[in-house]
Amino acid sequence: MKLTTFWGENLNPDCIGCYVGDETNFQQGRICQTKFWNLGQDIEIAYPGMLVFSPLRHIFSFEELTPDELQEWQQLMIKSKQAIREIFGCEKVAYAFYESSNLHIHFIIIPLHGEVKIKDKYAIIRELMDRADELRKDQQNLQRVFEVLAKMRQYFAKN
Ligand SMILES: [Zn+2]
Fold first, then answer.
1. How many A from CA of 6 to the centre of ligand 1?
2. Contacts 24+ apart (CB under 8 A), 44-47
3. Which residues hold their Cβ within 5 A of ligand 1, which is an ion?
4. CATH fold label, 3-158
5. pLDDT tens across the length of the chain (159 residues)
């Protein structure tokens, strides 16, 4: 699958979930890695604090997650919400979860912090996909995304 990350890296991995989970890749977008999960900034959409949780195993469905993986995911989600609260002072978030027979599952949290004005929060993924180019070209926004990434890394390193 061909794509260009918002920081301008051209990729063509067999699976994006496996790509971001490979420790030798994806240094710029990763926040942290736990025993079972990779946590990173969304690779295509330069929205500050848009977090993607991918299991390190190449699995296609929610039912395949083990109790240990689920427990660790829950802890990561809770920490992520705390990090979002600390960094943005923001309580509102949107969630997305992707599952299909040929897609490495992943969960997404989007903080609704108001830094990027959203027209319809119930169609936020569609809106952000449509505005991906605009968000990439906005230098101030890009700077903010990397600033938030650095703060996220700090938060996860100390908590
Ligand atoms: Zn995969």
1. 20
2. 44/3, 44/5, 44/6, 44/132, 45/6, 45/128, 45/129, 45/132, 45/135, 46/6, 46/132, 46/135, 46/136, 46/138, 46/141, 46/142, 46/145, 47/110, 47/116, 47/128, 47/135, 47/145
3. 15, 17-18, 58, 104
4. HIT family, subunit A (3.30.428)
5. 889 999 888 999 999 999 999 988 878 899 999 999 999 999 999 999 999 999 999 999 999 999 999 999 999 999 999 999 999 999 999 999 888 888 999 999 999 999 999 999 899 999 999 999 999 999 999 999 999 999 999 999 998
